Amino acid sequence: MIECVPNFSEGRDRTVLEAIRAAAASTGARVVGLSADPEHNRAVLTLVGEAETVLEAAWAAACEAVARIDLRRHRGVHPRMGAVDVIPFVPLAGDSMARCVDLARRLGRRLGEELGLPVFLYEQAATRPERVNLAEIRRGQFEGLAAKLADPAWQPDFGPAAPHPTAGAVAVGARPPLIAFNVYLNTADVTVARRVARAVRGRDGGLAGVKALGLLLPETGLTQVSMNIVDVARTPLPAVLELVRREAARWGAAVLHTEVVGFLPRAAAYRAAEWALQLPGDLGAQVLEDAAGLPS
Amino acid sequence: MIECVPNFSEGRDRTVLEAIRAAAASTGARVVGLSADPEHNRAVLTLVGEAETVLEAAWAAACEAVARIDLRRHRGVHPRMGAVDVIPFVPLAGDSMARCVDLARRLGRRLGEELGLPVFLYEQAATRPERVNLAEIRRGQFEGLAAKLADPAWQPDFGPAAPHPTAGAVAVGARPPLIAFNVYLNTADVTVARRVARAVRGRDGGLAGVKALGLLLPETGLTQVSMNIVDVARTPLPAVLELVRREAARWGAAVLHTEVVGFLPRAAAYRAAEWALQLPGDLGAQVLEDAAGLPS
């Protein structure tokens, strides 16, 4: 089984989102969820299924997004470079990263050749080290794409060396599961959220398995520490939240609430409970439904 | 499906515990676990299966315990009155409390008539209000049983009005799922554990869904707040822990670690993570394995 979690640069127009969902579902893949965020103006589609089915579903959804989303008119607080911005393939239990790399390369070739999108392969599918990190690929965003693609170091892995006029470019990759975890702060001062993000993310000395951005949410007048937990097994979510809470408190801000965008592995929920409850053992071994093999 | 969670007054002798486990397993019931605590000198067997199978397994395990455990020589920090001390039946999803009450009464009758045990029906199976609460039935423990059974108000529901010489008496009942949750404190002063227990339990003004005892653990020189979370849906485990932590801190004590004895419902693990993570929504709806119908 393979999971695919394409991100689209539309988080407001339900007609467009339903069209993307329907295109994916028409292939027979299981659409586990579609999570849209109006302030990010972005949506995350979660697909699960057999490899070839998921590949077709990701292709169908990407075609719909390229046909319907115009980046020239897109405003949102989350960085983005394309109508279909990023398409990661994730191996689920029993499947392999190698298969996901193969899917990413096949989908990337097709997106480049048939839709005319510049395609960057990233993470485990990357063709060079400086393209492993999605943030590096996306730096400059849609508005900076033409200049970036003119740089010989940023020739795409597939497709033309010029942005698609309305759909920009896309990153396609293979990676382990991650958790998109956002923490809302009760301050409108984005410098606080940015300082907190810097303190908690591994790149700047924080938790090794955490990527983080500080964002202003203009609609609500709040700020958000928007994180990817990329080392799910070794990064307890409540430990991340505690660090965010303490760093925010340094600047007089408090945590309003949090959110998980899309889905998280069940084991991460159990690890969170273990941490919060000071349980030394494996909570999963003590969950009745798991131990007794009962239906969920 | 029915769960049955008999408690036995033996937590040290592996031969006795294995005999009890084997007796239960020989009936075809699923023995999900057997959790023994040497300081409590007590063990919890968790059985799951179809109603009649679980009934036979509980009977077989009780026979083994009555044959092998001698309460006259039993020492342990947890209150107890019988070799097989308490036998609760619990309805799992799709099954009913009425069926569990019926099982409790049938097993109680058989334990009284065939093993000569005084039997008290409790909780949903109780025959009078003062026998709903297990703590009331067990008050006086094994050593006080003869006097208690001489009181007309404490005639057993089944079996003789005198203690079994080695096996005491047994409480058999039907109840919703509960979580046995113990918190270890870094103090040898049992008055601290008792004050904390009093502050957190519903009977004395604490959390309505919590029962609690403060216990001294002589082997380790620690103390324990030993709790039953009886209103699982409305009592988040991390909230219980925070209250214990704050009450213990009043007396200068801290929480070393916690334990769940036996099993807990998966939903309780998810509720714990939600509370700890300040997630306003239903985490279960965002667990990939649940949402995508993947195997556990």
UniProtKB/TrEMBL annotation, chains A, B:
Its main location: cytoplasm. Pathway: Amino-acid degradation; L-histidine degradation into L-glutamate; L-glutamate from N-formimidoyl-L-glutamate (transferase route): step 1/1. It is found in: Cytoplasm. One of its GO terms (biological process) is L-histidine catabolic process to glutamate and formate. Residues 1-176 form the Formiminotransferase N-terminal subdomain domain. One of its GO terms (molecular function) is glutamate formimidoyltransferase activity. Its EC number is 2.1.2.5. Keywords: Cytoplasm, Folate-binding, Histidine metabolism, Transferase. GO terms for cellular component: cytoplasm. InterPro entries: Formiminotransferase_C, Formiminotransferase_C_sf, Formiminotransferase_cat, Formiminotransferase_N, Formiminotransferase_N_sf, FormiminoTrfase_cat_dom_sf, FTCD. SMART domains: FTCD, FTCD_N. The keyword Transmembrane does not apply. It holds the Pfam family FTCD_N. It comes from the Bacteria. The keyword Oxidoreductase does not apply. Residues 177-291 form the Formiminotransferase C-terminal subdomain domain. This is glutamate formimidoyltransferase.
